Amino acid sequence: MRRAAALLIAGLLWPAAPLPAIEAKAPPAASAAGEAGESTLRRADLRVAKVAYRLALAGRPLCPGAWPLTGMLFHHLAEYEVKDRPLMVARYGLDRGPGVLSVIAGSPAARAGLVAGDVFLAVNGAVFPSPSEIAGIRERTVWRRRLEATERQLEDALRQGPAELLVLRGGSELRLRLDSLPACLGRIRLARSDQTNAFATGTYVVMTTSMLDYVRNDDELAVVLGHEMAHDILGHPATRSEEGVLAGLGIHASNIWKREADADRFGLRLMAAAGYDLDAAIPFWRRYLGKFDWFPQIFRSHPSLGARERIAADEIAAIRAGQPWRAGI
Ligand SMILES: [Zn+2]
């Protein structure tokens, strides 16, 4: 029981703690919940997307490199459970291309005229890889890589400037022109799961519906998203590395602790830039982590709650004093 709890929190604290059960489950809008459940999930998607959008856009001066932010959330046939796929094909035409799950008002995607339910067929004349083919791949790491390549195809086009999109909507094809804004890396997925968790894959942030239910407001949501986005933005390792396994045994943990401290601190910087309440951070960590903080430090891959509170308090003081961001302190 205690062991399970420790593994569970590791996901939030540890970049890309693998949670295959979550990755294998359908992301939002799968059919099982029915129409009402689906619209609830759509609202949840949009809420997460909006907070991530604010963090990515406002944090831009802090971030290395620019990522083309459009203000929409994708979904792809391969992300749905096999039993839900026929419905997603019938309802959205997700066998034709990657789909738009939600669009943030006022974003470049909204200005382009994109709406939830649209399907992308081509960008600048280049068609997207077949979703059915990708969905047919059994090996998770392989289809994930192909799916991410699909999303990058659009991003690469947008880096060159406004892109010409061929879009499928209600059985008709239309052409739209999509622009983007330079921002911090902020690819987000909301996964339907009863595990209260979030993690970074190195390229994406995945947050569970249970974690979304757990946060009390958007400031706390920004704490979680800011921390995980920071892992991806700062280029922290994507998967459970050898180093991570060693750290789990209490060996060479200091690098990982340093990364976690940096993710906490950089997440606060993103929050401050986006105007979220920094005072939400420490109470959130106390509530979320406090009950798990018994675990012997040597066996853990992350600093203790007390250490994280000090790190957060110091960074908040530095932000309020107008001190610039410094990595690795
Ligand atoms: Zn972390």
Short summary:
The protein has 329 residues and is α+β, with helices and mostly antiparallel strands.
What can you tell me about this protein's structure?
By secondary structure, this protein is α+β, with helices and mostly antiparallel strands. The chain folds into 2 domains: 1-31 and 44-63 and 185-329, no CATH class; 65-183, Pdz3 Domain. The protein is built from 13 helices and 11 strands. It has helices spanning 2-13, 20-24, 34-58, 85-92, 108-111, 131-135, 140-159, 209-214, 218-233, 242-248, 254-274, 281-290, 305-320; strands spanning 67-69, 72-75, 99-103, 119-123, 126-127, 163-169, 172-178, 181-183, 188-191, 198-200, 205-208. It has a 4-stranded antiparallel sheet with strand order 5-4-6-7. Strands 9-11-10 form a 3-stranded mixed sheet. Helix 9 packs across helix 11. The longest helix is centred in the first third of the chain and has 25 residues, at 34-58. It starts with a helix and ends in a 9-residue tail after the last helix. Mean pLDDT is 83; it is low at 1-33 and 239-252. It binds zinc ion. Zinc ion binds at residues 13-15, 227, 231, 260, 263.
